[in-house]
Amino acid sequence: MPETYLQFSQKWNERFPYTYDTKVLAYNSKAFYNTTLGQVYEKCISDDKFKGNLRCRFDTKNNCGNYEGQALLSHYHEAAYDAHMTGVVFAHVLKHKEIDLARMMSRKGKKGGPMNNSQAATQSVPNAIGPNPKDLKHQPVALDGQYPKAQLNRMMMDAAGSGRFYHLEPQQHLAVVQKA
Questions:
Q1: What is the distance of C-alpha 45 from the center of its chain?
Q2: Within 10 Å of residue 46's Cβ, how many Cβ atoms?
Q3: What DSSP string runs through 11-25?
Q4: Residue 32 contacts residue 25 (beta carbons within 8 Å)
Q5: Whose CB among 32, 85, 113, 136 lies 3.0–4.6 Å from 26's, allowing a Cys bridge?
Q6: pTM for this structure?
Q7: Is the dihedral of CA 168, 172, 173, 179 positive or negative?
Q8: Where are the chain's structural domains?
Q9: 3-state secondary structure of 155
């Protein structure tokens, strides 16, 4: 095991250059009060703001129906179910932000033009009028947008969810540490 966080982050980044933390995604989306995996998952599958944006289903044709129906809470912390929840949260949070950004851009366009650069940076969108939000539903998640890119390789490592982030990219980690 590396002796310092910087050494750890260098080794990690060599092996896994594209890491997303669902807690960071949920926290920075500003759509969740509680960012624990189970709570975010429940909101993604039950809240109208999320559930209509993507379809995520188990493969029941190949006998993968264990997690359908009632009593799903009893499956929390089973490896396969936690992996499923993580994937659903990842996709739904990014899709929610993508649609939310398109809505904002659409409203801005109707009010007289695209957002200025500071608004675009705050909302993680390019300075342009975007696609129709309705056209984004049930489409693949865009990982090349500014919001996903801004969350890449950021980890939240405190159980309290105070918003303290660590970077898995060594240069980014040093920049964060030097600012503190």
A1: 15
A2: 9
A3: HHHHH-S----HHHH
A4: no
A5: 32
A6: 0.73
A7: negative
A8: 1-19+153-180, 22-142
A9: strand
